[in-house]
Amino acid sequence: MVQATPFLLVLFLALGAHGASVKKCSLIGRWVNDLGSNMTITTVNANGVFAGSYHTAVTATMNEIRLSPLQGALQRTNQKGQPTFGFTVNWSFSDSITVFTGQCFVDDDGKEILKTMWLLRSRVESIKNDWKATRVGINVFTRMQ
């Protein structure tokens, strides 16, 4: 058993070092999605609350697209480094708001990816038109270089 101890120690250290080198996702930075929209997350505080801006590449309005603020929260209890999050974009150029929910992943190549689903709520003139007020979709964001 004494001769096996150094082998087990080396094996344990090698496995531990591999686990320690796992890259964790960070939301802070600039992101682009599959439609060409850009998002910048500037701060994440100790409670997981974050803020930033969103510049969409697509719109259903005829209004000029403008940079819009976003606010969100990150699930801080996830110790695996691939946290869940949610954020709201208050569109500066239309009577609508979008909420996103998703998770930050690190793929096998170490690349960070945000997989999200969103609900966009547009203002309608009356409750009769409520049926067309909410849209749903998905977006995949990658970090901008």
Automatic annotation (TrEMBL):
Keywords annotated in UniProt: Biotin, Disulfide bond, Glycoprotein, Secreted, Signal
InterPro entries recorded: Avidin, Avidin-like_CS, Avidin-like_sf, Avidin/str, Avidin/Streptavidin-rel
Cysteines engaged in disulfide bonds, as pairs: C25-C104
GO molecular function: biotin binding
Cellular component, GO annotation: extracellular region
Keyword Glycoprotein included in the entry's annotation: yes
Alphabetized PROSITE patterns for the sequence: AVIDIN_1, AVIDIN_2
Family indicated by similarity: Belongs to the avidin/streptavidin family.
Quaternary context: Homotetramer.
Functional summary from the UniProt entry: Forms a strong non-covalent specific complex with biotin.
Protein name: Avidin
Organism: Dasyornis broadbenti
Organism ancestry: Eukaryota, Metazoa, Chordata, Craniata, Vertebrata
Underlying gene: Avd_1
